[in-house]
TrEMBL record:
Gene3D superfamilies: 1.10.520.10, Peroxidase, domain 2 (1.10.420.10). Ca(2+) 2 binds at D361, T363, D368. It is found in: Secreted. Disulfide bonds join C147-C227, C180-C185, C233-C436, C310-C342. It comes from Malus domestica. It is an enzyme of class 1 (oxidoreductase). One of its GO terms (cellular component) is extracellular region. This is peroxidase. Substrate binds at P273. The lineage of its organism: Eukaryota, Viridiplantae, Streptophyta, Embryophyta, Tracheophyta. It catalyses: 2 a phenolic donor + H2O2 = 2 a phenolic radical donor + 2 H2O. It comes from the Eukaryota. Its EC number is 1.11.1.7. Binds 1 heme b (iron(II)-protoporphyrin IX) group per subunit. Binds 2 calcium ions per subunit. The record marks R174 as: Transition state stabilizer.
Amino acid sequence: MHPLAKEGRQPFTIHWYVVLLWHLKLRKALATGKGLGTALHLGFYNRGCPKVEQIVAEIVSKTHQQDSKLPGALIRLFSHDCFVKLRLWHCKSQAVIDPSTMEIGPRLITAAVFAVTLCSMITVPCSADEVNNPGNGLHVGFYDRKCPNLEQIVTDVVAKAVETDQKLPAGLIRLFFHDCFVKGCDASILLDSTPSNEPVEMQSPANGGIRGIEVIEEIKARLEQECPETVSCADILAFATREAVAFSGLPRHQVPAGRRDSRTSRASDVILPSPATPMDEIIDFFSRRNLTPEEMVVLFGAHSIGTVHCSFFDYRLYNFAPGQPQDPSLNPVFAADLAQQCPAPNTLQGEEAENKVVDLDTTPLVLDNHYYMNLIQGRALMQSDQALATNPRTGAEVAKLAIRSDSWARQFVRAIIKMGRINVLTGDAGEIRKNCRNFN
C-alpha cells in the first residue's frame, strides 16, 4: 500500500499513458522541429517557462546532497535515452508513482516535469515592451552569446549562499535598491575607492548594515573565469536580485541587461529617505526617479522580508513626541510586544544594544502582501511604512494590495524591472570592472 494511503490521504496518481504521450510529443517535436520551432537553441524556454532551469537545478541540488552518486545516474539515464529509440521506465496502467520504488533518475525527472507544468501559472505576464523597453539599451538575452552560462552561475551562487543564510535575499534586494536610488543602477555602491579618493557610498551612514556584497564578489569571480571582462557588476547585481526575489517566493522574472559600471562613488551623493521622512517627500523622491506613487507603494513591499535594528523605530515606543512617548498610530498590543523585543535604549549597552533586531514582517522569509495587511492593522515597525496606510495619496493603494496578493506580486516584479533602469550606463559609458570593489 502507498504510504499516503495508510494515512487515509489520496496518493498522487498519474496514468502511464499521460507520461508516455508527453514524452513522445516532446521527442517528436525535438526531432522534427514541428511545434517547437525550426531548431534547438539556447534560451528556448526564456519566455515560455523562465523558471525551468531554476526548478531543475533546485531539485537536482537538493537530491545530490543526499546522494553523491546522483550525477552518474543522471548521465547514464540521459545516454540510455538518447542511444535507444524510446525507453521509458515501466509502470503499470493507472499505477501510483511511488518515489520510494523508482530509480533516482526517473524520480527526479518526474518531480521536475510536474514542477515545470506549473510555469504557466507562476510566470509573470510581462509584455515585450515592459521587459525590453527601448531607450536605454537594456534588453533580455544581452549575454546569451557572450556569456551563456551567466544566469546559471548566478543561480548556483545565490542558492548556495541562501542555504547558509536564509535572510540573504532581503540583503541583496536592499543592496540593489540602495545602488539604483543613488545616481542610478551602476554598481557604484560596491566600490571601495575611486580615482578621486573621496569617501565612497558604502561609507555613508545610510548604507550601514548593507549585506550581500560577498555574494556579488563570488559571482564576479566565477564569471571572470567563464567569460573574462564581459559581465558588468551592475548587471550581476540585477540578476542576483532576481534570484533573491525568486527565492523569496515570487515569480522568477526576466532581466533586461546591458548596464555598465560607474567609476565614481561618493558618500555625499547618498541622500535616501529615512524612516521619519514625511511621506510626501518620499513620494517626490520616487517621482524624480520616474516611479509613480503606486509603484512606490508596491516597492515598499520589499519590507515584507528581512530584519530591522531596533534603533530605526524604538523612538516610536519611548520618545515619539513631547508629552507623547508612544506613537498613537501603533497598535497597542503590537507596541507592547515590540517593547519586549526592544527595551528602552538607555537600558542597553554595547553589543547587547547593537544586536537588537526585529523581523520586519510576520512572514520574514516570504515576499507577500502580509506587509500591507500589517499596515492597515497598525503593525508597521517604521514610521514611513505606517504612513503609507494613512497618507491620502497612498492609502487606497495599500488597501487594494492588502486583499490582492497576486496583483501585488505581478506589480512588484514589474516595478523591480523598471527600477533597474534608473539612470543606467550603457554603450561606451562607464566600464566593465574586473573586480566589483575596484575600478579598472
